[in-house]
Write a structure and sequence with these properties.
Low-confidence stretches: 1-12, 75-88
Structural class: alpha/beta
Radius of gyration: 37 Å
Number of helices: 22
Number of strands: 10
Strand order of the largest sheet: 6-7-8-3-9-10
Bound molecules: adenosine-5'-triphosphate
Mean pLDDT: 81
Largest sheet: 6 strands, mixed
């Protein structure tokens, strides 16, 4: 559940703090389209809400009747109380409404009361249940649509949004809306109903006393505005500082190895301590205002009650008001006071909801790159690739041209390697082939078809990538391999593991394929993780394979196992190797050397190594020297 604030907007974040404009409000209402399929249930809930409200508003009247039956048992004889007490016209009108109950005895009133309470219980139950049904179901739909939207958005979207933020959209922002649907809306209605209905009823009981009671309102409103502003300002600071403390915890836990390696535990504890102290300081400042506000409210509220009793008592003594009506009046005053107190919180809730819906709608309005509802008519490509004068800059850094003019041709089944210094744009070429970003210039073709017009799912289904840093999901080894082809049989998964040289180590674990790999695969070694990733790619059986070679070398035994697995994987597939260690690419069909966004050299190893002062020849020399240095 979203954190609910105390009164008068405390705890509304800065993002939500903008005034609730008509426009923002209208926009936010759009989010309620998710409730439309359940409008019937909502209407039923609303009827129960009205019924339960009517029953609870009758409680003070019946209480009054009970008191009346106690203090004027003569009622039973049918004598009008207001006549005895010298009541006015309004009271009479109201009492005429309840004329029949006038002549009721205490037992009879109590019986009616009990029936009313039972009805109230039933109505309240049905109201809560139906509203919850609407809110749960519509928020399920919203969450599901939001998740579908997020997961189908292009990579460029994820570059500008942080994972933590997206998480809070789908969790706390949706919860905020859910709260509104299941609680706030009903609460708002109840409070307005109580306020308006209550004031109307008491004005019928005694106009004078009502005016007297209402005269305390301006004090409350002014106090709410003045104190509210200070409370909001300080609670915002508390929240911000609390967020800072959370960042410290998150950052240090994520990089706990670094903290430990640098023995910076003391430093972090101190940093955290300072941050939480700030939270306390701001919270105490806010408490000064909140405390002041609460004590003022209590003073005015109870002062008001005392005033009402005093003034009402005088009216009773002078015979202008029946005692039981004063009793009813006081209970209604309590009801009204409660609803006025709650209205400030309502405003804060509405502010927060408008903010939350705006943020959710922003995501829903983004354009997906994949349509998950379409069924895919999978077509296997041969794997002929060509880049024609491709130019590219990342959308997030448009003025830095990463690729200027790249042209290359790869025949189906060929193995090529892309070489170049770090940051030259090797991975970028591969990302463009996978259509992760749109090109600025030129064309990429697969089997002579321009990828810009191809369906993304169709395109990516033909490509498998074994990345530099293998990220596994937290589940079992089996699940991780089967991710390459979710409908694979057990035999397929087993066979893929065997071909990837992974079977031996998997079988050596007590739980075999059911071994849990730990978060991101931490419970496996680097070489083992790579072989799981290779098995996954073998299972996918793509026409095009991308190997983003690991920068760090494995030990020679593990290296051989991985290399053999890769050789198996590369068989009969167009393969692009992003090479970091040149020793592994001697046998590829062609090597492309990337420099300043262009292909500076191309040819096989034997050709390139002979080039005097060639970039490739120099790179090989450099790596060779480095290896020698390491050996020495
Ligand atoms: N998502 C991105 N947004 C903006 N710039 C990026 C992005 N990814 C990479 N770059 C920049 O584009 C350039 C090429 O990066 P790329 O990852 O293609 O290099 P690389 O040759 O694969 O490098 P390495 O060998 O270090 O992996 C670099 O200058 C990098 O900073």
């Amino acid at each position: 559940m979203a954190k609910r604030s105390s009164s008068f907007g405390a705890g509304v974040s800065e993002e939500d703090k903008k005034k609730v404009t008509k426009e923002g409000f209208k926009k936010a209402l759009k989010i309620f389209r998710f409730t439309l399929p359940y409008k019937g249930t909502f209407a039923i809930g609303f009827i129960f809400l009205i019924l339960s409200q009517i029953t609870s508003m009758s409680i003070p009247l019946l209480m009054g009747q009970m008191v009346g039956a106690i203090v004027s048992p003569k009622n039973t004889s049918g004598v009008n109380t207001s006549e005895i007490m010298g009541g006015n016209m309004a009271v009479q009108k109201l009492q005429n409404l309840f004329k029949s109950s006038e002549s009721l005895t205490l037992n009879e009133v109590t019986a009616i009361f009990i029936i009313l309470l039972l009805l109230q219980a039933v109505f309240s139950f049905l109201r809560v249940y139906t509203f919850t049904q609407v809110s749960e179901k519509s928020m399920r739909d919203l969450r599901s649509e939001l998740y579908t939207k997020i997961i189908t958005l292009p990579i460029s979207f994820f570059e500008k949004s942080r994972v933590g933020e997206l998480m809070s959209r789908i969790t706390s922002d949706v919860t905020q809306l859910q709260d509104v649907l299941s609680i706030t809306l009903a609460e708002l209605f109840r409070q307005v109903f109580t306020l308006v209905g209550g004031v109307l009823l008491i004005s019928l009981l005694s106009g004078k006393l009502t005016l007297f009671m209402l005269s305390t309102f301006p004090f409350l409103v002014v106090a709410a505005i003045v104190f509210g502003r200070f409370i909001r300002k300080n609670s915002k600071k508390v929240q911000d500082e609390l967020a800072q403390t959370n960042i410290i915890v998150e950052e240090t836990l994520q990089s706990i190895n670094v903290v430990k390696a640098f023995t910076n535990e003391r430093l972090e504890v101190k940093r955290y301590g300072l941050s939480i102290q700030k939270v306390v300081d701001y919270a105490l400042k806010a408490a000064t205002f909140r405390g002041g506000f609460i004590s003022f409210i209590i003073l005015v509220l109870f002062g008001g009650v005392v005033g009402v009793v005093w003034y009402g008592g005088n009216l009773v003594l002078s015979g202008e008001l029946a005692f039981k009506d004063l009793f009813t009046f006081i209970i209604y005053t309590g009801f009204i006071g409660g609803s006025v107190g709650g209205l400030g919180d309502m405003y804060a809730q509405i502010q927060r909801t408008v903010g939350a819906s705006e943020r959710i709608l922003e995501i829903l309005d983004e354009k997906s790159e994949v349509n998950v509802t379409n069924t895919l008519d999978f077509k296997k490509v041969e794997g002929n690739i060509s880049f024609e004068n491709v130019g590219f800059a990342y959308p997030s850094r448009p003025d830095i041209t990463v690729l200027k003019d790249i042209s290359l041709k790869i025949q189906s089944g060929e193995k090529i390697a892309i070489v170049g210094h770090s940051g030259a744009g090797k991975s970028t070429i591969v990302q463009l082939l996978m259509k992760l970003y749109p090109l600025n210039k030129g064309k990429v073709l697969i089997d002579k078809e321009d990828i810009s017009t191809q369906d993304i799912t169709q395109l990516r289904s033909n490509i498998a990538i074994v990345p530099q840093e293998v990220m596994l999901f937290g589940g079992t080894i089996y699940e991780n391999i089967a991710y390459g082809k979710p409908n694979a049989t057990e035999t397929d998964v087993f066979e893929a593991a065997r071909k990837a040289n992974a079977l031996e180590f998997i079988e050596s674990f007590p739980d075999k394929f059911q071994t849990i790999v730990g978060e991101r695969g931490v419970k496996l070694s680097g070489g083992q993780r790579q072989r799981v990733a290779i098995a996954r790619a073998i299972l996918k059986d793509p026409s095009i394979l991308i190997l983003d070679e690991a920068t760090s070398a494995l030990d020679s035994e593990s290296e051989k196992l991985v290399q053999d697995a890769l050789d198996e994987l590369m068989k009969n597939r167009t393969t692009i190797i992003i090479a970091h260690r040149l020793a592994t690419i001697r046998n590829v069909d062609k090597i492309y050397v990337l420099k300043d966004g262009e292909i500076a050299e191309s040819g096989n190893h034997d050709e390139l190594i002979l080039k005097e002062d060639g970039i490739y020849a120099n790179l090989v020399k450099l790596q060779f020297e480095n290896v020698n240095l390491l050996v020495e």
